[in-house]
Amino acid sequence: MCLLLTAVTLAAYWPLRLNDFVNYDDGEYITGNPHLQHGLTWSGVAWAYRTGYAANWHPLTWLSHMLDVQLFGLHPAGHHLTNVLFHSANTMLLFLLLARTTGATWRSAFVAALFALHPLHVESVAWASERKDLLSAFFGLLCLLAYARYVEQSKVEGSAATQHATRNTQHVSLFYFLSLFLFALALMSKPMLVTLPFVLLLLDYWPLRRLSFPTLQPSNPPPLRLLLEKLPFFLLSALSSLTTCIVQHGAMSFYRGLPFSLRAANALVSCVRYLGKTFWPRYLAVFYPHPEHYSLWETTGAAVLLALLTGLALSCWRRRPYVAVGWFWFLGMLVPVLGLVQVGMQSMADRYTYLPLVGIFIMLAWSAVDAVAAVQLLRWPATVAGVGLLAACFAATRSQVFVWRNTETLFTHAAAATPDNWVAHSNLAVDGLMLYLQTEHSSLEKQLVQLDAPLPASAQASPDSRERLAQTIRHCEAALQIRPRNVTARVALGKALMECGQLDDACAHLEIAVRLSPTNVVARQNFAEVLHRQGRAKEAIAQYQATLQLEPDWDSLLNNLAWLLATHPSPDVRDGAQAVRLAQRACQLTANTNLWFLHTLAAACAETGDFARALAAAGQARCLAAASGQSNLIATAEQRLQLYRSHQPYRER
């Protein structure tokens, strides 16, 4: 059965090996994270345990990403397949847990298959940055298995002879402490599992049957002992919650602007929406915008429906305990991510359902079997319906995996699936702008053209690139129409307008972006660049210097300021000594391999009168140009060498 579940899971997610990283957390977590670039190192391990990077403390997740970089580099296929393997392992662990604790093999397999194939889980698997979901679930399910084993040994100890009980005491303690240790590992992967101790209490009632109401069985431990038994788990949850609140303080800025009544309304409505997407998984999106208001009928309707379902679950507490356990498993595991303490700007997220949906699947599987048990004729139709349901989930999951192919497919789908999705438009704008810049500014020749005369690149761009730039502007305008204070979209719009040569409009948008977010280094860097292009050199220098205070080792920023200070036509602007220091640092950071930076260093040395060093730097640039084989680069390098040989500094036109 484990092999079959694994094969089905791999078949559903096999196309994921062709997917790219996406421009949504993957850069911060993996491709642009400087602490991961060298793979698994001792310094990286120390950093993982000390850092609150990306507003999270999850050292095991960082170590997992480091190991992936060590094995696969920054090729996305390896990272995605690791996620698929973890999802397959979680599917097997869930099956083994349910089969061991309930003895119902086929029902357990059906629950595990739903877990493996439900399209709501695609986000957790297909998004490389969501390794934390898979890793925390892996350790969480192992924790539940170890706990179940501890309970089995406890029952043996209670019923066996004294000698036999004494012999097993050591094993009981080992499984208890093993479950506690695995719970700690789960929290160190993602703190969402802080409510897992409540799940342990639910399992005590069913299927482990350690807790029974209204009468207690003499063989069961008293409820107070069961609560005391969970006390170390609750202490770990409290410690993890405190740590999370500290490291996510900055990510809670949106939460601090929402009244509790709105957060409570969002929690109620989100629960109902999660149920709706469980049974009809359409219009799935990587980001669901927070509406920032709910009508009275939405909130009241959600509250009434949840109250009715809770009452129904409680009414089944004795006759069908799996209904109550499944329902409260679902609600309890969702509590940390319902937005009562809001982190981020989403109203809900598919990834939050990864483990909570297990409760709903348990309710479905066991209720269906009970419903058809009394009618023999219904068994085969129910079996066919179950297989059909799994086949539909398989097809929907395969389709959703293709949605995650790249940033463009992901956010195009999100913009179509959800109204007023300003995050989707912002990310489409940023992705389009990045593709444009990579296409039009990738060659060293075009970099040098920009150095000599910073003209709008779109004038020489291909028709496809100009259309991409136009699309970027349209997405930026759509995002800003929905959310005018969206700094990301405003910066992208300013940069796109700058590339089109609309410098005044670009400057206006970038000035607003800097005012809205003074510590946004990308906004300041682009603001400095547009000021430079407008001829406002002293204002540009002030912005460059302010940006360097925030990001002192940004190599291209160091180079841009050095170029301005070394080559500006006005002597009031030039500062050769400072230009040399900045250019040297930029070349040092890139190990003297950037042709552009070497030309800047040569120009800075020439400005100070040190033509020997200028010739040395220009000579290195000449070698790199020759290695590229591009005649224009070689000609430019020769012209600079001739200029410095005649003891003349370079001046920007």
Sum up the structure in keywords.
0% strand, single chain, elongated, mainly alpha, 3 domains, 31 helices, 653 residues, Serine Threonine Protein Phosphatase 5, Tetratricopeptide repeat, 71% helix
Sequence-ordered SSE layout with sheet pairings:
Elements: H1 2-13, H2 26-31, H3 42-50, H4 59-72, H5 76-102, H6 105-117, H7 122-126, H8 131-159, H9 162-187, H10 196-205, H11 223-229, H12 231-247, H13 253-256, H14 260-279, H15 296-315, H16 321-334, H17 357-373, H18 379-403, H19 407-417, H20 422-440, H21 444-452, H22 463-482, H23 487-499, H24 503-516, H25 521-533, H26 537-550, H27 555-567, H28 576-589, H29 595-607, H30 611-628, H31 631-645
Helix pairs in contact: 1-5, 1-6, 3-4, 4-5, 5-6, 5-8, 6-17, 6-18, 8-9, 9-12, 10-16, 14-15, 15-16, 16-17, 19-20, 20-22, 20-23, 22-23, 23-24, 23-25, 24-25, 25-26, 26-27, 27-28, 27-29, 28-29, 29-30, 30-31
